[in-house]
Design brief:
GO terms for molecular function: oxidoreductase activity. The protein is of the alpha/beta class. Helix content is about 45%, strand content about 15%. The protein has helices at about 20-30, 45-50, 65-80, 100-130, 150-170, 195-210, 215-225; strands at about 10-15, 35-40, 55-60, 80-85, 135-140, 175-185, 235-240. Residues about 1-5 have low confidence and may be disordered.
Length: about 250
């Protein structure tokens, strides 16, 4: 009787925006499942501090397409082909369009839209060639409906939803899955990016009024979606705290 219990190593997973919040929680979740990781963030000290095994950490801004692609090539040389990317890097700069600095609009679209596309492009050709892979794009409920002071942020996240669904149609015939994760309010550092102090205080008061999602809740949803059989795509998962009405 064959008593060999050795199992094949798990494939490489890539996570952007991995230094805190949802990205860090997802890194811990996927590492616990046995996946080697490529963790990308601008604050490399924070991702190194996670101390996860079989992990390559690189200080990369997702708006730099060459840096993203180069890090993926480096990780694949170590751990084999990327089977999963979690495009989590994002910025939320809330404000009123009439008063918000235009460079904040540009930053949101650069990171939330162009940066996401850079992540997709870095892994997608290989996934298509191999006939399998999973792209998970972290969006927001603000990519499905509108809220006060979210005009440009919502625009960037509506773009994520639209691009994800169209991309799914492009690659479904190649065996590649595309999943959109749309969380409601989460206890992360995202609000700290907002520079309008009045808007920030109003949103913080809302968060303080209910029990919002923890990053681990979203990471669990990401893990659940990825662990489905490759023939099954959970196209969109929308999750929010039970107490969050809108």
């Amino acid at each position: 009787m064959n008593t060999d219990t050795h199992t094949a190593p798990k494939p490489l997973a890539v996570i952007t925006g991995a230094s805190s919040g949802i990205g860090a929680a997802t890194a811990r979740t996927l590492s616990a499942l046995g996946h080697p990781l490529l963790l990308l963030a601008r604050r490399v000290v924070r991702i190194e501090a996670l101390g996860l095994p079989d992990t390559l950490t690189r200080s990369v801004d997702v708006t730099d397409a060459e840096a993203v692609a180069g890090a993926v090539r480096e990780a694949e040389a170590l751990y084999g082909p990327a089977d999963l990317i979690v495009n989590n890097a994002g910025v939320m700069l809330l404000g009123e369009v009439a008063r918000q600095p235009a460079d904040e609009w540009e930053r949101m679209f650069d990171v939330n839209v162009r940066g996401l596309l850079h992540g997709v492009r870095a892994v997608l050709p290989g996934m298509i060639e191999r006939g399998r892979g999973t792209v998970i794009n972290v969006s927001s409920v603000a990519g499905r409906r509108t809220y006060a002071h979210h005009t440009v942020y919502s625009g960037s996240k509506f773009a994520v939803h639209g691009m994800s669904e169209s991309l799914r149609e492009e690659v479904a015939g190649h065996g590649v899955r595309v999943v959109t994760i749309a969380p409601g309010a989460v206890e992360t550092e995202l609000l700290s990016h907002t520079t309008d102090e009045a808007v920030k205080a109003e949103y913080q008061a809302f968060k303080d009024s209910i029990e919002v999602l923890a990053p681990e809740d979203v990471a669990a949803a990401i893990g659940f979606a990825y662990q489905q059989p490759q023939r099954v795509t959970l196209r969109e998962l929308v999750l929010a705290a039970t107490a969050q009405v809108a």
